[in-house]
Amino acid sequence: MRGKVYLVGAGPGDYKLITLKALECIRKSDVIVYDRLANIEYLKEAKDTCEFINVGKASSNHLLPQDDINRLIADKALEGKIVTRLKGGDPYVFGRGGEEAELLCDENIDFEVVPGITSPIGGLCYAGIPITHRDHASSFHVITGHPRKDGKETKEINWNALANVKGTLVFLMGIANLKNISENLIKEGKDKNTPVAFISWATRANQRVITATLENAYEIAIKENIKPPTLIVVGTVVNLREKLNFFENKPLFGKNIVVTRCRAQSSVLAEKISDMGGKPIEIPTIKIQKIEDNKELEAEINKIKDYTYIILSSKNAVDIFFEKLNDMGYDARVLFNSKICAVGGETAKAIKSRGIIADIVPQNYVAEDLYEELKDIINENDKILIPRAKNARDFLVKKLSEKCFIKEVITYESVIDNDKKDLALEAIEDENVDYITFASSSTVKNFITLIGEENLKKLENKKIISIGPITSKTIEDFGLEVYKEAEVSTIDSMIDSISNDEKMKMGELIC
Ligand code: SAH
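Above: the input record for the complex with S-adenosyl-L-homocysteine. Below: its predicted structure, written as tokens.
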């Protein structure tokens, strides 16, 4: 059986600038072949079993030759696999995607191409430069600045035409050849004062834009140490950047913020940080470890019809309970005799996905409220099962046991995810990281256990943001200083304290 290849454009870098079709390909692939311009965050969307092949490690200069890449993709498809060839921007814009597609065609391998937002389009936009404008440019031209070794392309480039057309010029892969580009354009009659912009790592949190003129472009590029990947823009549209620079003006632009993961909260925080232009660096500190071969749970499930209530207080508790039920050959019908209580909206949702609408969901999603709801309706004939995490609060079990029989079964525990230690250390050692956020006391403790107390000192030059007084106390107990505490204990307020921090700094500069 032959597989299929998708040549997929991953867009210019901003995580959300990818097409739905591209995501669908990533999710269904058996193999993903990618290089450095495609945002690697997309790999998280792939199946657990997906094989990842990096064919462009810029740092070590180990670029796989194009012929080998073509062969690799074809061979994987011939093994019957679904392959996504993930390329930065659009696959047919200077990505040699055409050559990859040709080989697939020659070998009769089924393929599709998924276009992406190319960097000259996405990158200029995020730099605040409209690629065309009625008063400035009536066309745009995307040119390779990287001459072919055989010299063919240099001859192909009509410098005279480019110098005289009233359009925006965008050179890709042009940094190494910049001197040649600017000299050729000036020689063929382009005004030496024409504005130039260098856009590096366009649309990413580390986007950097430097402006110059055609005449001093080379000198400035050297001085500013401009490196690939960079777009070189030549044209008066560059001047509009001052006015239209929406991306770099976002409140958290350029800020790298560590988000110490604590259940669902962290993704909300990370999402908000990126919406405001910052770069969240998510560090999961704990992982869920299921109790394997749980005989105690099996025994209770075997007599489940004796239970009049089942309390589930997290999505994990729901998943583990129902998986065991199914493994034992039962389905939701076996719960006919029990009322189901859910603590938390996410928990109720997880129960619903198993075909059951929870009977009781306390309004404030806390154990105390559930107790309030139950205390007057249960009597000594009731039997309650509560399958849940180790070290959960004992409030419910203690209070309910005064009224009837309650059986707690430990089904999982949260353990420190030691696999993430390197990731955590890398983040705190990175001098570009400005802030570390803690949204609960337990994440403080978990994070410090993960990095090891011997590394506490490394946190001293980071700005620590705490969600509230209890979390701050835990931070201070470790001898660390809280840089800012959220005014009210919410994720939004935490973000406000970071963006206000920035505003204050700008204010200081102005005054
Ligand atoms: N297929 C890609 C281009 C591949 S050629 C696309 O459609 O965008 C590689 C060159 O593209 C780089 O040398 C650089 O000039 C440019 N480039 C791609 N992504 C970029 C980015 N995020 N920021 C700046 N330049 C980028």
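Notes for the reader.
The chain is about 35% helix and 20% strand.
The longest strand covers residues 405-416.
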